[in-house]
Amino acid sequence: MFGNKSIKVKGADCGFDAFFLAIITSIGGFLFGYDIGQISGVLLYNDFNYRFLWGGTATVKSLLVSFMGVGCLFGSLIGAYTSDFLGRRKSIALGVAVYIVGDIVQATAKESWIHITTGRFVSGLGMGNLSVGVPMFQAECAPREIRGAVVASYQLLITIGILFGNIVCYNMRGLQNDSYSWRIIIGMGAVFSLPLGLGILFVPESPRWLAGRDK
């Protein structure tokens, strides 16, 4: 994408493509963190409570929050196979698509906690896929001089995503009586995932995956 443009890192040439790959793929970690941060704030919004937590039971709250993790469990198991079958790039793009579908399901929920919990499960499937595909792709593609920093960036972006999700919820708390407040917060996750879903198509495929298929 950037041709032969590169900079020196530890005495070796690291192409701009490698840095572009690191920036794009790290968004996967940001999405994970953002969901953790935003759901903790959205649960306190008046309109959200009125629509989905009217019973006020701890069971409903725990299911609503935890089904994202349940989806991640199955998504990570599936992602191990899609990464080998489709290739790293297409598998990550698929994970983003599933994540967006899950966010749409959540944002369109009206009064059923099962509806929004189902959306969180679907988002979890996509996120679980990314949690496998992104670090794998980073480790296989990044030059060894920056490989540790690139893979670590996934975890770093998770923490930044948590912080950002809480900041967004804090700043929109004045609109918590309106349904569009939490819908916007959830929908922002889908918007943030687009650079990853589209950008991953402009980076090279994993050389390890290509070599495994005699390419």
From TrEMBL:
InterPro entries the record matches: MFS_dom, MFS_sugar_transport-like, MFS_Sugar_Transporters, MFS_trans_sf, Sugar/inositol_transpt, Sugar_transporter_CS
Domain Major facilitator superfamily (MFS) profile: 21-215
Protein name: Major facilitator superfamily (MFS) profile domain-containing protein
Organism: Trichoderma parareesei
UniProt-annotated location(s): Membrane
Keyword rRNA processing included in the entry's annotation: no
Pfam families assigned: Sugar_tr (PF00083)
GO molecular function: carbohydrate:proton symporter activity
Coiled-coil segments on the chain, per record: none
